[in-house]
Amino acid sequence: MSIIEEIRKNVFDGDENNTVELVKKALDAGKTAKEILDEGLVAGLRDCGDGFEKGEKFIPEMLLSSESMKVAMVVLKPLLLEGSGGSGGAGKAVLATVEGDVHDIGLELVGTMLETAGFEVRNMGPDVPTEDIVAAVKEDKPHIVGLSALLSNTMDVMPDVIDALADAGLRDSVKIMVGGAPVKQDFADEIGADGWAYDAASAVPKAKELRAQLSD
Amino acid sequence: MIYDMYGNTKEVTPYERMMAALNGEKADRVPVNFYPRWAALEYAGVTFKEAWDNPDLYVKAQIQAQERFQYDCVIDYDMMGPVEEAMGAKLKYPENDVPQIAEPLIKTKEDMKNVKWKLDPRKDGNMPKVLYVVRRLKEELIRRGRGTQHVPIITWGSCPSRTAACLTGFKEWFLIVARDPDWAVELMENALDGWLQMIIAAWEAGVDAVWINDPVSSRDCISRDHYEKLTQPYQRKFIEAIRRETGMKITFHPCGNWHDRMDLVYQNQADSYFLGPMDIEMCTRVAVETNEKGLSRVKSLNGNVGAATKSTTDGQTAVPYATTMKRGKPEDIEKEAKAVIETVEGADLRCILGTNCWDVKGSSFANRDAMVYAARKYGQYK
């Protein structure tokens, strides 16, 4: 098993300490930060997400995998930011899990991935009241607003946020992305979101694509 | 007490109907309970916070809405909060929603020492306010029933796993489950008593039945193995303690998708199960099987209009909860209610018609009416 494959497996298994050690070893062995991120950490996390979809992994195991990625990112992030030309170059993003939903694993991962792709990210965390999201968009003037929900009953809050942004006259200045386990493309279309991504890794190209559609 | 309500049918009181169903017996027809918090508040035109600040207003809303919609119970505040707050947690009170934990009370094992685990519901925090509502509901129902309580009062309780998760924060709870199961057990062991005392006090104040729930042990959250070894034993312990101390009928609400573990759920020994968004045929079949093996004592199934269909419950939570009640039309309610009644009663379990989670804020009065109408139309016992 290659060292990258070992990283992938350790993220999948949620072994935080081993993952960090392996990342350091991989860097020493000449692997690039991008390679370790994409083929090791993200791939391991995606395997875990697939396991979640199949009912083989659950929230505790998902959390351990995401914790493994988080501690490994402490080592990788500075190197990735160097490569992306620094934080904020790709645009600004405000991320939040909607009100009533306390889940933030996916949100944190999307935040980390966007940061490493050069976005300046304001992660508002879980259970954020709609009015706070509107206030943050007013204040930060982001290009992307990312909304997350893990519960099928809280995904209904997403259209409220979109409406609130429209009422505040902010809808046309941002691109809104939605995501989370129960959220799918058809729901995104139904509520008038601009984009949906399957997972944290695919959120990055989608955010870049949407960012490019804005004039400034 | 039988009274002639609609000319062509003899109806018993909601109290008799509901208590019979919880006990596995047939009264006149299938009862309806969709845990009518929002139905009552919306009918009264008040927010949750207004009703929380004015318990008499809450009582009035509950009584008037039951009279208007004709479902088969009233409920007290029925919410997480009073116990956790009395334990030391800080709550936030949204304008029109139930309280939420503002920040986790327990971040480390050391924090366990700062929690007030032993509670007196008659004195601590806002627990006396809940008991006041129960007493007032009882008085008012007896007054309106001219000396007889004609509608049952149902209270709510939080399973130890849920309480523990509220105290630690949900994310930390799941990490504790993964990293330190012994600590998870210690948390549940400590968390059990507060809600038990609250339920005992509510029973002494006049409630007639209790429902409890656990939204953190579903297939959406933890593995079957974690459920079987960690949290199910504490559901069972909680249920046994409530039964021992009060003798009340107990309904358990498996909130979310529990498809792969309903056999274990039924073994927690509740009397009735308020089903989440799950296939009603599967839930009924497994209840009958576990009863036949002597592993469970399921008498009735409550739910689950707005529930998932087979095609959407293949192991994923693709079904928005209580979809039909919120977004459907009265004819959709009627159609699903008919299927639920036929499935559950067809297996000789008692059906209590309801939604598949708490009453849904913003559902139309027409849909709420349709559920009671469906119970009358399809749920008559010969």
Layout: helices, strands, pairs:
The complex is a heterodimer of chains A (216) and B (382).
Chain A: H1 3-13, H2 16-28, H3 33-54, H4 59-84, E1 91-97, H5 105-116, E2 119-123, H6 130-140, E3 144-148, H7 157-167, E4 175-179, H8 185-191, E5 195-196, H9 200-213
Helix pairs in contact in A: 1-2, 1-3, 1-4, 2-4, 3-4, 4-5, 5-9, 6-7
Chain B: E1 2-4, E2 10-12, H1 14-22, H2 37-44, H3 48-53, H4 55-69, E3 74-75, H5 82-87, E4 90-92, E5 100-103, H6 127-144, E6 153-158, H7 160-168, H8 170-179, H9 181-205, E7 209-214, H10 224-246, E8 249-254, H11 262-266, E9 272-274, H12 280-292, E10 300-304, H13 323-327, H14 330-346, E11 350-354, H15 365-378
Parallel strand pairs in B: 3-6, 6-7, 7-8, 8-9, 9-10, 10-11
Antiparallel strand pairs in B: 1-2, 4-5
Helix pairs in contact in B: 2-4, 4-6, 6-9, 7-8, 7-9, 8-9, 9-10, 14-15
What tags apply to this protein structure?
heterodimer; A: 216 residues; alpha/beta; five-stranded parallel β-sheet; globular; B: 382 residues; seven-stranded parallel β-sheet; two-stranded antiparallel ribbon; 11 strands; 48% helix; 12% strand
- What helical percentage do the residues of chain B reach? 40-55%
Instruction: Name the chain pair with the biggest interface and residue counts per chain.
Output: A-B, 23 and 27 residues
User: What structural class should be given to the helix and strand makeup of chain B?
Assistant: alpha/beta
Helix and strand content put the structural class of chain A at alpha/beta
Mean pLDDT of chain B: 91
- How much β-strand is present in the residues of chain A? 5-15%
Instruction: Characterize the overall form of chain B.
Output: globular
Binned strand content of chain B = 5-15%
Q: What's the Cα radius of gyration of chain B?
A: 20 Å
Description:
The complex is a heterodimer of chains A (216) and B (382). Helices cover 59% and strands 11% of the residues of chain A. Chain A is built from nine helices and five strands; from the N terminus they run H-H-H-H-E-H-E-H-E-H-E-H-E-H. In chain A, strands 2-1-3-4-5 form a five-stranded parallel beta sheet, sandwiched between helices. In chain A, strand 1 (91-97), helix 5 (105-116) and strand 2 (119-123) form a beta-alpha-beta unit. Chain A starts with a helix and ends with a helix. The mean pLDDT of chain A is 88. With 382 residues, chain B is α/β, with parallel strands linked by helices. Chain B is 48% helix and 12% strand. Chain B has 15 helices and eleven strands. Chain B has helices at residues 14-22, 37-44, 48-53, 55-69, 82-87, 127-144, 160-168, 170-179, 181-205, 224-246, 262-266, 280-292, 323-327, 330-346, 365-378, and strands spanning 2-4, 10-12, 74-75, 90-92, 100-103, 153-158, 209-214, 249-254, 272-274, 300-304, 350-354. In chain B, the strands form three sheets. Chain B has a seven-stranded parallel beta sheet, with helices on both faces. Chain B has a two-stranded antiparallel sheet with strand order 1-2. In chain B, helix 2 (37-44) packs across helix 4 (55-69), helix 7 crosses helix 8 (170-179) and helix 14 (330-346) runs parallel beside helix 15 (365-378). Chain B is globular and about 60 Å long. Chains A and B meet through helix 4 of A and helix 8 of B.
